[in-house]
Each structure stands twice: as structure tokens, then as C-alpha cells.
Amino acid sequence: MGRKLERLFDEYLVTCARAGDRSAFNKLALRWHYRLLAHAYRLSGERETAMDIAQEGWADIVRNLTRLEDPKLFPAWAYRIITRRSVDHIRRTTAKRRTEAAYRLEPQDQAPSNSPSSQHQNLYAAINHLKPKQQAVIRLFYLEELSIAEISMALSIPAGTVKTRLMHGRNLLRAALKGEENG
Question: What is the DSSP-derived secondary structure letter of residue 130?
Fold first, then answer.
């Protein structure tokens, strides 16, 4: 099939799919899925990530196909959706890496030098053994005395996530300190 005929066929499939023809949409998806997947792979560089991006992109296409005014624009429109999804993924990944790096760079707490208490030493040692994300929340809540909302804003995570990390961090600290008391 020549390039012009392929384009005309795609326009026809888009028009039918917009009208609710599932068979036409399935044919359109079969024709375009691997191209969009390859585009996502080129942008993300990771096979699994590209598959996720393509899947999310197809969800956007399904949701918004009726808004596409000109069926001729489907290829550019679909590629733009995949590009936008890829950029979003890269931003999230970059932000996550920066956050994790910041957690790792946080200073390891030591008991105040004016407090020779071994309990404080044990507490700070237990905090240092938490996962970096839990350490950050515990430190901000107890040592910096920030509220849940302030921690949420500072770490760019939902308040519910802050509460969950606090709960898990407390439980782990309690178990670690209880184990030391018994041991």
C-alpha cells in the first residue's frame, strides 16, 4: 500500500473509530501501536517504561479521540501524546532521583554531645537504619518539628504518604529499640 493510501486508510479508521466503530479502532491500534511504542522507547530508552508510556498514551487516545477535529492529524496527534507522556515520565524519574539523592545526602544524626544517654545514641542509630524516605519524614517531623502539611509540601508528596511513612518509620523504630532493650 502506498504512503498516500496508508494515510487515507488511517483517516478512514479514525473517522469510523470516532463514530464508535470498535473494529476500526482495533485496526487503527494494530497499525499504530508498534510505531508509538518505538517512539516511546526512543524517548525513554527503556523497554518496560516504553510499554507503560504507550499504554498510558493509548488510554489518552481512547479518551480523546472524539476531540481530534481532523482525522488527517492523527499521526502527529498520537505522537504528541506519546511525547508528552514520555516527558512526564522523565520528569517524574528525574524528580525521584533528585529526591532520593537528597535523602542520601542528609546528614546522619548523632545524639547531642551534651546528652551522653545511650538511649539517644540508640535512637539516632535506629533512625539512620531506616529507608531514606522514612528517615526524611521522621527527621522533618520530630527533629525539625514540621507539620504533616509542611512535610508534604517540602517533599512534594501527598499528606497521606507522609502519614504512612511516619507510621512505618515509628513502627520500625519501636521494633528496633524494643529489640535492643530485650537484647
Answer: S
